[in-house]
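Attaching the record inline, Q. Sequence:
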Amino acid sequence: MTRTNNLGLYVHVPFCVKKCSYCDFLSFACNDETALSEYAKALRRDIVCKSEMLPYRVTDTVYIGGGTPSLLSASDMTDIMRTVFDNFNVSEDAEITVEVNPGTVTEDKMRAYFAAGINRISIGVQSFDNSVLARIGRIHNKNDALNAVRMAQKAGFKNISIDLMFGIPGQSMKMWKDTVRQSVFTGVNHISLYSLQIEEGTPLGDSIRNGSIIPSDEETDREMYHTGLEILRNAGYFQYEISNASMKGFESRHNLKYWSYEEYLAAGLGASSFIDGKRYRNCSGMIPYLNAVKEGISTFDESDTEQFSKREEMGIYVFTGLRKTDGFSITDFENVFGVDFFDVYNPEIIESYKGYMEFDGVMLRLTGAGFDISNKIMSEFV
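Structure, as predicted:
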C-alpha cells in the first residue's frame, strides 16, 4: 500500500481557552499552565515512541494542530519541535505547520516558532467581523487577527494561511465579502474557506434545534462559497481543493497527503494515523493516554483500529481524490489497487454527471458545479 518513502507527522494539542459554539473536535477548555506543560511532556514521549514505528521513512511534512497549539508556552513548543527533529528523519525542505489562535499568540511565541524550525503558520481567523466572531464564540477580535498576521510576518514567516468560515447565522454577504477582501489585503498566500457545519451536541447546534438561532439557507451558503472563490481568483489565488486556495507553490503539502492517499503518523490524544492500509486512532481518554505514554506502551486504541476491505479503500481513495480540483489519476488508482478503475466503477456514473464531472482519459475531477453536489457524487463511489 505504501506509495512513497515520504511520511507526514501530525501532532495533536487538544486544549483551547474555551470551546467555540460550533466545535465538536476532540478538544477541552484548559488554562492550567501546569496541565498544559505536563501534556507537552507526554506528547514528546509519544513522538519518540511513534518514531520507532517507521525509522527509515523521510518525514516531509509536520502539522501541529488542535485544539489550540498556540496555548502552549513557547518553551514547550520549542521542546516538541526539538523532539521531532531528534527522532524523525525530517527532510531539509519539510513543510512544518502550527495552528494558532489570534487570541493566544504573541510576538515572542511567533519568534520562538520560527527559531524552532516551524516554517508555516495557520491562523484560525474565521471572520474579520467582530459581531460574527462573537456569535460563534471566538475569543479574539478583528484587531487580534490582523495583529497575528503581522506578528507572523515580522517573525520571518513567508508561508501563512488563514482559515475563514461562511454560512454563519446572521452573517450577511457584505460581511463575508469584507472578510475575504481583508484576508487578501493582509498578503497571506493561503486561504481556506469553510462552510459552517452544524453539529449535534454543540451549543450552536442546540440553539438551532430549539429555534433560538436560524441557520443560513443552502442557497446563501453556495452563493457565499462561489463569491469568496471569485474574490480570491481575481486576487491571484488558485483553488486547488474544494475548500482551499493559495498562491502558486503555497498549497498545504500536509493536507494534500490526506487527499492523495499518502501515509501519516499521529501523536497526541485521539489523533489518527494511516499506515500500510490500516487506520489507527490514539485513545481519546486523557488518563488512558497519559498512562500509556508513561508506561511506554502503544497509545493506539485497539478498539478503534480499522482495516477496511480493498473495495472500501478504493471508495476512500476516490472520495478524497475528488476533493482536489485536479482530481486524481486513473492510472495512479490502478497502480495502488492493481485493478482497472472501470472494472470497479461503471463508466455510466461519469456520464450521468456530465457537467459536474470531467474525465480527460487520465484525470477524473469535479467541475465547479460538481463541488456544489460533491457529497452526492462521491457517494456513488463509496
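DSSP finds 16 helices and 16 strands in the chain. The two ends are 19 Å apart (CA to CA).

More tomorrow.
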